[in-house]
Amino acid sequence: MKIYLTDGIKATAEDAQKLAASLEVTTTVNIATIETDVAQRRLVLHLNKANMSQKKMTGAEIREKLTRATRLHVIANKEKNPTVLTLIPNVHSVEDLDTLAENPPSYTMLLQLEEKIRDLRLKGIPGIERANVQFNDKTGEHYLATIGSNLARVNEIEAIDRNRTYTNNIIEIYDQLGIEAARQAIVDELKATLDGARLEVDDRHLLVVADVMTSEGEVRAIGRHGVSGTKHSILARAAFEVTVNHLLKAGIIGERDHLTGVAENIIVGQPIALGTGSVELFYVPDA
Q1: For 74, left (φ over 0), alpha (ψ -120 to 50), or beta?
Q2: 46 close to 176: Cβ distance less than 8 angstroms
C-alpha cells in the first residue's frame, strides 16, 4: 500500500514514523523473548526495551493487552515499568495462586498457552507486516509504503488522506470501492508492470483484459478458477487446463457443446464463425 497523510502530519518524518509504528502488526515475539518453564508450568516473557521503544509500547501496556487477550493474571516484576512478565495457565487472579500447588496446570495447557501468546497481536492492523516512511522529492511530503494491505482498516484512521491512499490488492478495492474502481486498478497495475519491464502494449489490449475480468460484476481471474474455467464451451475449458476433468464432468451430466466460439471450432477442424466463416452463402456453378 501507499498511504498518504493529511496536511497536518505529512511534512514531519517523526509523526509519520509514529503512524507507521501504529500500523505495523506487532506480536509478542517481536518485543519479548518467551521462556517456557516446564518444571514450574509457567511462561516468562523478557521484554526487549529497544524493540518496545521502536514499536512505541510500554511494559504496562503490554501487560494490559496480555491480560485482556488471555484473561489470565499476568505477574510483573515491577508495577510501573515491568521488564519481565509471567503467565501461568488457569491462574485468573491473585487468589488462584494459593491453590496452584493443589491443582497445577497440565503440560498440554502450557503448550497451548505458549502457542497462543507467540502469535498474539498486541498492536497494529491485521495484514500490514511492515510500514516504512518514504519521502517524495517532488511534493516534499512523507508517505508510508507498506508490506501487506488492509484498505478497510486503514481508511478508518483520521490522519490518512483517503483520496490518495492506494493499494494493489484488487479484491480489497472491489470490496471497498466497487467494480469500476477494481477495473481501473487492473488497468493501472498492468500498465505499471509492463512499464517496469519496458514493454509497450496498446492500452486497448489492457482494457479488454480488465473488461473480461470484471464483466460479471465481480473480479475474476483469467485462469481455470476464473474466466477460462467458466466458458460455456466444454472443449474451450478442456483446452486450457485439467482436460480430463472437464471432459469427464461434461460426459457425466450430459453437457452439450454448440461450437459457437473460436477455440472449439479449431479443435474439431472446422471454420470459425468469424469473417468468411460467418457467411452462410454458397455459389454452386452449373455442371
Answers
A1: beta
A2: no
Torsion sign across C-alpha atoms 94, 99, 101, 105: negative
- According to DSSP, residue 23 is labeled H
User: Which of 101, 118, 107 shows the shortest CA–CA distance to 37?
Assistant: 107
The answer to whether the CB of 127 falls within 8 A of the CB of 140 is no
List the grid coordinates of 264.
Answer: 472449439
3-state secondary structure of 45: strand
Q: What does the pLDDT read at residue 144?
A: 92
CA distance 210 to 174: 13
Map residue 255 onto helix, strand or coil: coil
Q: State if pTM tops 0.85.
A: no
Domain residue limits, the chain: 2-22+127-167, 26-121, 232-277
Range with the poorest average pLDDT among 83-92, 172-181, 231-240: 231-240
Contact criterion met (CB below 8 Å) for 212 and 187: no
Q: Which amino acid is at 45?
A: L
153-196 pLDDT per residue, tens: 999 988 888 888 999 999 999 999 999 999 999 999 999 999 99
Q: Is the pLDDT of residue 8 over 70?
A: no
CATH number for the segment(s) 26-121: 3.30.1360.140
Q: Which amino acid is at 282?
A: F
Domain 232-277's class?
mainly alpha
What gap in Å lies between CA 21 and CA 158, rounded to an integer?
A: 16
